[in-house]
Design a protein that fits this description.
Blueprint (H helix, E strand, L loop, with lengths): L3 E6 L5 H9 L17 E7 L2 E7 L10 H14 L3 E7 L6 H13 L3 E6 L6 H6 L10 E2 L8 H11 L9 H5 L4 E7 L5 H9 L17 E7 L2 E7 L12 H16 L2 E7 L6 H13 L2 E7 L6 H14 L7 E4 L11 H13 L4 H14 L4 E2 L2 E2 L1 E9 L4 E7 L6 H15 L7 E6 L13 H17 L1
Parallel strand pairs: 1-3, 1-4, 4-5, 5-6, 7-9, 7-10, 10-11, 11-12, 16-17
Antiparallel strand pairs: 2-3, 8-9, 13-14, 15-16
Helix pairs in contact: 12-13
């Protein structure tokens, strides 16, 4: 069992920077901005042949309220799972009252604890760590997480000190299995984090009645009905003109990267608000990314029948291009309809990853062409000869023929609809790629025989006499 290492400390002491170094990733959002991390983030790392699980947490300050109170709750949940705690302090800021209070709380928990003095680059190490002895947590360990200075030897010491029998809860390593990766996306404050918590059955991510509460993309592995999933809670995406903070710009980038990394996307729409152009734009990005999709209309409870009918009309008008996706009307807060999402998630994933046999594709193509032939181009009929699969997630069907570069967009949509219907590819977009075979005689001049040349001369003499 891999040991679980939890990083805690005040805001802006470098926990996310150390998390990225230990996991050799850029999963945690990092900026010179206190309180950037709000949810706990899990990752894997390895020193030599010894693996471990590392958990990044939000900054813990004094007198938490509002969002900060939820951040503290998330950090305390992480501490309950810890085999060892790394308490980070800032060498440049020095010892603060908040550090002393947090040290008292951590000491009482009884979990193995290491005091880590970060940002010692360019400083005298003895001087930088002197005042932190007052915390009574043993010898401070001096590191510079941004450069990785002294980090590897320190982690080796932590893993060596940790006895093998002190492994964490049984479920944690299995929790990091990927399975079906499901990204939950939508505009700010539509209920994405509430939906993630409802699907997990616990308060795993921070929920607060304020747009932009979630800033990073949080990957959460779990198991349901013997099927492995990884839920990805993302930051809300809104119009570029309304993005003020640089941090929010990075959050949007993280969300778009999460869509690319996912197998299935749950797009959450707020039923209490009109379906906006931003909803349509985000749905278009999901479609361009080729990801399987499930549409969740949240906050459905309490709507009047006339309001529900209005929402359905808006979905048909503004999101009609998502006709391949199943729509669920849910309440993430109360849980109604949430359990039904998993069935369509699995169906959409199976459709996106399905292997399609070449004989079956050719049979469907032949029937489609027989029912509705391609149009004529300059008096010549476009011929579609055979098809085969070119990729998965989304399914890519490659069709060979002649003049395929002139296939109209309408006929392409017709073929996509036929393949989706006949192959049962519900919940995933289908892509078609046309390829024209090379003409072996293209560019070669036709050489006439003597008899053809004589006939040509007779015809030319006849034309001249007529003229």
């Amino acid at each position: 069992m891999e040991p679980v290492i939890v990083l805690v400390g005040r805001p802006n002491v470098g926990k996310s920077t150390l998390f990225n170094y230990l996991t050799r990733s850029r999963d945690a959002l990092v900026a010179d901005y206190p309180g950037l991390t709000r949810d706990r983030q899990y990752g894997r790392g390895k020193v030599g042949s010894r693996p471990y699980i590392v958990v990044d947490t939000g900054g813990l300050g004094d007198d938490p309220e509002g969002v900060a109170l939820g951040m503290q709750s998330q950090a305390m949940r992480a501490l309950d799972e810890a085999d060892v705690v790394l308490f980070l302090v800032d060498a440049r800021a020095g010892l603060t009252a908040a550090d002393e209070e947090l040290a008292t709380v951590l000491r009482r928990r009884g979990t193995p604890l290491y005091l880590v003095v970060n940002k010692v680059d360019g400083m005298n190490r003895a001087m930088a760590g002197a005042e932190f002895h007052r915390l009574g947590l043993g010898e401070p360990h001096m590191i510079a997480a941004s450069q990785g200075t002294h980090v590897a030897p320190f982690i080796e010491q932590v893993l060596t000190d940790l006895a093998p029998q002190e492994s964490g809860p049984e479920g944690l390593p299995a929790e990091l299995e990927e399975g079906i990766k499901v990204a939950v996306v939508g505009r700010p404050n539509v209920g994405k984090s509430t939906l993630v918590n409802r699907m997990l059955g616990e308060e795993r991510v921070l929920v607060y009645d304020m747009p932009g509460t979630t800033r990073d993309s949080i990957f959460i592995p779990f198991e349901r009905d013997d099927c492995q999933y990884t839920l990805i809670d993302t930051a809300g995406v809104r119009r570029r003109a309304r993005i003020d903070e640089a941090v929010e710009k990075f959050s949007v980038v993280k969300t778009l990267q999460a869509i690319e990394a996912a197998n299935v996307v749950i797009m959450v729409v707020d039923a209490h608000e009109a379906v906006t152009d931003q909803d349509a734009s985000l749905a278009g990005h999901v479609l361009e990314s080729g990801r399987a999709l499930v549409l969740a209309v949240n906050k459905w409870d309490g709507l009047q029948p006339a309001q529900k009918e209005s929402v359905r009309r808006q979905l048909d008008v503004k999101l009609g291009f998502l006709d391949f996706a199943r729509t669920h009307y849910i309440s993430a807060l109360h849980g109604s309809g949430v359990g039904l999402l998993f069935d369509d998630i699995r169906k959409a994933y199976d459709a996106a990853m399905r292997k399609l046999s070449t004989p079956l594709l050719n049979e469907v193509l032949s029937d489609a062409v027989a029912a509705h032939e391609p149009p004529l181009v300059h008096g010549r009929r476009i011929k579609l000869r055979y098809a085969h699969q070119g990729g998965q997630n989304p399914p890519l069907i490659v069709i060979h023929g002649n003049q395929t570069e002139k296939v109209p967009a309408g006929y392409r949509r017709y073929l996509i609809n036929v393949f989706r219907r006949e192959l049962g590819l519900q919940g995933t977009p289908v892509r078609i790629e046309f390829k024209t075979g090379q003409n072996p005689y293209e560019g070669r001049q036709n050489k006439l025989t003597p008899r053809q040349l004589a006939r040509r001369r007779r015809l030319m003499r006849f034309v001249k006499r007529k003229g």
